[in-house]
UniProtKB/TrEMBL annotation:
GO MF terms, alphabetically ordered: metal ion binding
Source species: Arabis alpina
Pfam families reported for this sequence: LANC_like (PF05147)
UniProt record similarity statement: Belongs to the LanC-like protein family.
Record keywords, A-Z: Metal-binding, Zinc
Any one of the GO BP annotations: carbohydrate metabolic process
Amino acids binding Zn(2+): 280, 325-326
Name of the protein in question: LanC-like protein GCL2
One GO cellular component, as annotated: plasma membrane
Organism placement in taxonomy: Eukaryota, Viridiplantae, Streptophyta, Embryophyta, Tracheophyta
Tree of life domain: Eukaryota
Amino acid sequence: MTMADRFFHNVMPDFVRETETEAGGDSLMHLLAMPYSSLSHQLKRSALDLKETVVIETWGFTGQLVQDFTLYSGTLGVAFLLFRSFQVTKNANDLSLCLQIVKACDAASASSRDVTFICGRAGVCSLGAAAAKLSGEEDLLNYYLAQFRQIRLASDLPNELLYGRVGYLWACLFINKYVAAETLSSTNIRQVTQEIIKEGRSMAKNGSSPLMFEWYGKKYWGAAHGLAGIMHVLMDVQLKPDEAEDVKGTLKYMIKNRFPSGNYPANEEDRRRDTLVHWCHGAPGIALTLVKASEVFGEREFLEAGVAAAEVVWKRGLIKRVGICHGISGNAYVFLALYRATGRSEYLYRAKAFASFLLDRGHKLLSKGEMHGGDSPYSLFEGIGGMAYLFLDMVDPTQARFPGYEL
């Protein structure tokens, strides 16, 4: 597969001024020139249609059976989409259906050994707690919190986001955000954080990065399994000064060793293949981490590197996939993060361009087989569930957050 086969050539202008007048005959150009209020109205309508489709296909037609409970590719992702929909529309039906689905996922995940938000039991219990809190169901809230507190971390657990310690840590932070601060004690969070830092330091011993981690024998760099994801979550917890320096140093090491194009290797062992422009591997997920670092540490270097990574996403990020993990929907979040950090309208325009591309052409490209709909076509991370989530997030871009990654 050549590089050009991976993505659609981005022929959209670098910037289009919004205008009340009709733009020419091209439907995509028309969306790009449309005032934001009108476009967000269209995106919202499309999001709610997509949400209905996702619910019918994954919940209605299955007889409410849960085969895959995860947020990533399974039924919990549908509950998370409904949770977001409730936040945007305040439609109480979304919240009650969210809770109903979480309940089924709770039963399906009872014996799971996976402990993370995106792929494990922690996702079920923390989303259940957050939704119960929103709907004022005290007993249910206490039930999910009790279930969450029973989760045990194995000593040989990896540290990455999808299956490892930081994926558990993120679930703790999610509960503290949506239920109440200190619902899960900072002592517990501190303990897990120390464990992560300790392992990162010991694996980095002879390298030039202060922290390094492995997942299945590979030293990954990206958001899903590697350095970017681990650093991202560590920046959300209280770090000691020397730990914060190690996080900064690790990100600077990555910046120094990026490709000349501004993209990033998938892992330490593969420093020559500049091909992947995904949230999970490559510039998009790393850009989100760099933008966050610029806000946490206030250093220009991180923002500049984030901007450079976003250029890669603009040029090569219209990949031939719809999803959030490795698709156009997820890549749009890079521009939303930069817009929140800088307030610059060109980043909002770029997020709008990726969303408009999906709104205008997504269904056509998927039905013609020119764009991959994911192995789980209705799921949050691989399928149109992710597109629906992005469209909901575009309604108020200042509140947009990459699901399961940005708090």
